[in-house]
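User: Fold this; tokens only.

Assistant: Input:
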Amino acid sequence: MDNINKSDELINVNKELAVQKEDKKKRAAELLIANKELVFQNEEKEKRAEELVIANKELVYQNEEKEKRAAELDIANKELVFHYEEKEKRAAELVIANKELVFQNEEKEKRAAELAIANKELLFQNEEKEKRAAELAIANKELVFQNEEKEKRAAELVIANKELLFQNEEKEKRAAELVIANKELVFQNKQKEKMTADLIQRNKDLEQFTYIISHNLRAPVANIIGLSSRLQQINLAEEIKKQIAEGLFVSVKKLDEVIRDLNDILKVRQKVDESKQVINLTQFASDIHLSIEKMIENENAVIVWDFSEAEELITIKSYLHSIFYNLISNSLKYRQPGIPPTIKIKSQKLNNKIILIFKDNGLGIDLNNLSDQVFGLYKRFHTDRAEGKGIGLYMVKTQVESMGGKISITSKVNEGTEFKIEF
């Protein structure tokens, strides 16, 4: 009887187990579907999703084990019908198995609860990710808009820079043109100043020239007029007529000299038609030395020259010859008594200019009182020392200026004189 009761209990247990198996199968199917869905949703997720997949596989494995155990129980039940002796052992085993199943079910419920929490967490994370994705999408759109604005600004800046570059180039061109124009204006102003100074000096020279010439012409003409009037008188003695004729001759001769001087000066003042040529100064000085060699020997003079700094000069040869001759002959005429004359001639190059220097040890000139008369027409100094007309230095200055140069003088009485000519 007890065996029958135990069998009934076992049958009831088996039925309950069968119901639990069916529930487990349903639960397993649901879990499998949920796991597949979770696997599908979380394929790309992190380690937690991989652990859940592993857990699902373990549950499938355990369910398979449970089905095997259930099959074994079926066999055992069938065997219990035929083998009552083994039922108690199997019943004990079933009790143990049931406890294990209960434990496993509890574990599964815990796992299911954990999975539910994990799913909720994953869902929350997905929602957060979607929010982040939406925020990123908005941020990306804003960045795209900002980049487009920056590109527009950059394009505008490029255009502005090109325009500025063009304007700067135009300004530089204008500045360069202005610099050139300013230089040209400065040059023109200098030329104008030089021309004005030349014109002023020429006017002064012309006034002086006109005054001197008129004065020098007036004297012989007045003498000629006076003597001619005397000749018209009646009953003049032959001796007086002879004296008048001699006076007329002297006055006419003086008038001729003045006219000749005037002609020479005017020739220099007229347009320079003679072409310029390259003059070798060393050879040129040697030729002049040779032409006045007798005069140099008579005065026991020494003439030395050094043209090493500037050996050649492009100028009018006849004018340069006249300048050399007048300055050298003046140095010889106005030598100091008892001192052999020494004349030094040299050339220099300074600031694209060629400078000729004539220096002697002669009587010198008192420039403190006579500086404005040195190059005057018919101005003579040391009249007791030598004869002359007083036009030599005037001619030198006129010839130098006709060739675009200028002449200056420094002198000390009883020490000597130095002339500087700049070309």
